């Protein structure tokens, strides 16, 4: 899997603060304050109930620190590392009340993001022996795009654009509204910065031929094409543009699509349909 340097905590802290505020409500953790005597100390462990790839561990650490800076955190499976069922991902030691107050937010982040990283790793494994790369989409949880896309990286995948301002991606509705493929590409050539990459979506090979003839695109998104048409598209492109296959990319189909020779396979399911990994906090 992909081990990467952590993101600056100042970027992640607002997400964690918001989640903690949501969980603590207006009066804090009244259960813990009621039943746990002050000064009670414990060592807790985040334990994996199933195998997977870690992500969200940095956010979990921030959650515990924001609740109580005195808590001691030791991570054994950092973001991007794989683990087996029963593995201890991290240990937290200190005031039991502090650990309990941060528990759910820490596990929500770690479980959700580890699920994305684990699912991404399964898709990436299907591309073995080919140059095809798995990439995510903008089909992310509102407010969590940054960390969900980071989880894709932890699973060995690649990131598509983060926002509408990152690149020019001309979809079918843009083409319809602008009057066709040639008009949109001509507009791009006339107005776009030389620093801005251009991708255009096609769902037919005659559209691809028109894109290649007109020029102006760096990437062509091949939408909902079967494997035979994808192979034809690769032959037509001859390396002149980057080719991205998209649409209904189920795990069972990835190996076949990767073998067609496309450069990228974009998969919305990496983020919108990933199952939260089963992680627990054991005292």
TrEMBL record:
It comes from the Bacteria. Residues 29-114 form the Quinolinate phosphoribosyl transferase N-terminal domain. Its EC number is 2.4.2.19. SUPFAM superfamilies: Nicotinate/Quinolinate PRTase C-terminal domain-like, Nicotinate/Quinolinate PRTase N-terminal domain-like. Residues 116-282 form the Quinolinate phosphoribosyl transferase C-terminal domain. InterPro entries: Aldolase_TIM (IPR013785), NadC (IPR004393), NadC/ModD (IPR027277), Nicotinate_pribotase-like_C (IPR036068), Quinolinate_PRibosylTase_N_sf (IPR037128), Quinolinate_PRibosylTrfase_C (IPR002638), Quinolinate_PRibosylTrfase_N (IPR022412). Keywords: Glycosyltransferase, Pyridine nucleotide biosynthesis, Transferase. The keyword Glycosyltransferase applies. Pathway: Cofactor biosynthesis; NAD(+) biosynthesis; nicotinate D-ribonucleotide from quinolinate: step 1/1. One of its GO terms (molecular function) is nicotinate-nucleotide diphosphorylase (carboxylating) activity. The keyword Transferase applies. Belongs to the NadC/ModD family. Involved in the catabolism of quinolinic acid (QA). This is nicotinate-nucleotide diphosphorylase (carboxylating). It comes from Paracoccus methylovorus. The gene is nadC.
């Amino acid at each position: 899997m992909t081990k990467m340097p952590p993101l600056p905590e100042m970027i992640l802290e607002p997400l964690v603060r918001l989640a903690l505020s949501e969980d603590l409500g207006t009066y804090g953790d009244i259960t813990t304050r009621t039943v746990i005597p002050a000064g009670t100390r414990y060592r807790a462990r985040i334990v994996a109930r199933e195998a997977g790839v870690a992500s969200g561990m940095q956010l979990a650490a921030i959650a515990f620190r924001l609740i109580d800076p005195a808590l001691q955190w030791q991570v054994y499976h950092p973001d991007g590392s794989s683990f087996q069922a029963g593995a201890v991902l991290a240990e937290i030691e200190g005031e039991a009340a502090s650990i309990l107050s941060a528990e759910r937010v820490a596990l929500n982040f770690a479980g959700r993001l580890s699920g994305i990283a684990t699912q991404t790793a399964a898709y990436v494994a299907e591309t073995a022996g080919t140059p095809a790369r798995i990439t995510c989409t903008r089909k992310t949880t509102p407010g969590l795009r940054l960390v969900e896309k980071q989880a894709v990286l932890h699973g060995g995948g690649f990131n598509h654009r983060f926002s509408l301002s990152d690149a020019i991606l001309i979809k079918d509705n843009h083409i319809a509204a602008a009057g066709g493929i040639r008009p949109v590409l001509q507009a791009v050539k006339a107005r776009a910065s030389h620093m801005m990459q251009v991708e255009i979506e096609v769902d037919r090979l005659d559209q691809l031929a028109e894109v290649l003839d007109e020029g102006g695109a760096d990437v062509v998104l091949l939408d909902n094409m079967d494997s035979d048409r994808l192979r034809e598209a690769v032959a037509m492109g001859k390396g002149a543009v980057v080719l991205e296959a998209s649409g209904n990319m189920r795990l069972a189909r990835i190996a076949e699509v990767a073998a067609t020779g496309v450069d990228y396979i974009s998969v919305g399911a990496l983020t919108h349909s990933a199952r939260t990994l089963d992680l627990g906090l054991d005292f």
